[in-house]
Amino acid sequence: MSRPPLTRSVWDVDADDFPADGAVHDRARFLLRYAILAPSSHNSQPWTFDVHDDEIRFAADESRWLDVADPDQRELYVSVGCAVENCCVAAEHFGFDPQVEYHDPASTGRVATVRLADGAPADPHPPELFDALTTRATSHAVFEDRPLAPATRQRLAALVRDDDVTLQVVDDPDTKAAIAQLQAEADRLQMDDPEYRRELGHWVGLGALGSSWLAARVGQAVVTHLDIGDREAAKNSKLITSAPVVAVLTTPADDPPARVRTGQTFERVALLASLQDVAVHPMSQTLERPETRSRLADLLGTTDSPQHLFRLGYADESPEHTPRWPLSEFLTGG
Ligand SMILES: Cc1cc2nc3c(=O)[nH]c(=O)nc-3n(C[C@H](O)[C@H](O)[C@H](O)COP(=O)(O)O)c2cc1C
Fold it and tell me: Per-residue pLDDT tens for 212-246?
């Protein structure tokens, strides 16, 4: 199946183009222009949207699932959750009260439904998050050696509004060093697996990861296969130990709704971080291997399941936007 080209023009979405007097169906579709700007693992954009009047049905697109890196589909659903959150932030901006319902994808084929009710939300997002929808980007930089401002930490923590999702913030050097070791171990295991490298090379080859140094490095290494595991392990463990904060989102349940909620929480944090000039970098390898994932939970002293791990800090350069496939690629049904 051929896909339309990736493009960066999707980032130029203009709020003035919102069809305020249009049918609710058209207004709902406009919100999805923001949904596709969400982060996703390998920028695979593994979502589909089905708009029915005031209802937007979100599903995971298994043709875009990273079945080698993500065999238990954790990243798949976290990524869809990020798109759900962007949609909700945009919906509130344009005057809706978005109501999210979660589903069991195995029985419904759907992950979540966002219903666009009229009126003011009982617990609204900070309105400024809307501005970050078109500016947020993942950073791969080495972060500066300075702590996260306490007020920023508090504001980020306050965004965790879901009782089922916990944000663990790690800033002590010993725990960061232990997490860096898990990362190094997972990097070696993943990069030793030819199927993992093939899958990563596929997405790099499509251009999904843009032309960042990460994509260039990994793309080159996937071709040469030279000591890639050791190099990634050394680089990534340094990225972790040098970050002022490593954050982990955990949930008591380990199922698709918990992962969608994790994605929503992460995206909220990433949007606010972007407005505070705080760089954000998810690092998934530790969670991709069951053995390192369960050791991470032990290290954090939790019986919850770790769902998403990311670095937070300050970087002296702003990352570039990665491209996206256009919205038409993801619309299904009526
Ligand atoms: C569930 C999930 C897992 C991710 N894992 C990683 C990762 O392991 N390493 C990394 O560099 N970026 C990771 N990312 C970031 C994506 O690569 C990034 O979101 C994508 O390339 C789009 O770029 P953007 O966030 O700058 O728009 C992850 C993102 C999500 C949502």
Answer: 645 555 665 664 555 678 888 888 999 999 999 99
Ligand 1, pocket-test mutation among 10, 34, 40, most atoms within 8 A of CB: 40
Please give the distance, rounded to the nearest whole angstrom, from the Cα atom of residue 128 to the centre of ligand 1.
Answer: 23
CATH of domain 9-136+321-332: 3.40.109.30
The mean per-residue pLDDT over the stretch 163-175 comes to 95
Taking the CA of residue 210 as reference, the ligand 1 atom at the shortest distance is 21
Quick one: CA dihedral 9, 14, 17, 22, positive or negative? positive
How far lies 326's CA from each of 25, 103, 152, in Å?
18, 26, 34
Q: What is the DSSP letter of 15?
A: G
Q: Please state, rounded to an integer, the average pLDDT across all residues of the chain.
A: 93
All residues at 6 or more sequence positions from 106 whose CB lies less than 8 Å from its CB, including other chains: none
Please give the structure tokens belonging to residue 81.
Answer: 């959750």
CATH topology for 150-313 is NADH Oxidase (3.40.109)
Cβ pair 58, 84 in contact under 8 A: yes
Q: How far is CA 58 from the centre of its chain?
A: 16
Could you tell me which residues are beta bridge partners of residue 331? 49
Q: CA-to-CA distance for 33 and 38, rounded, in angstroms?
A: 10
Q: At what angle do helices 213-224 and 194-206 cross, to 10 degrees?
A: 130
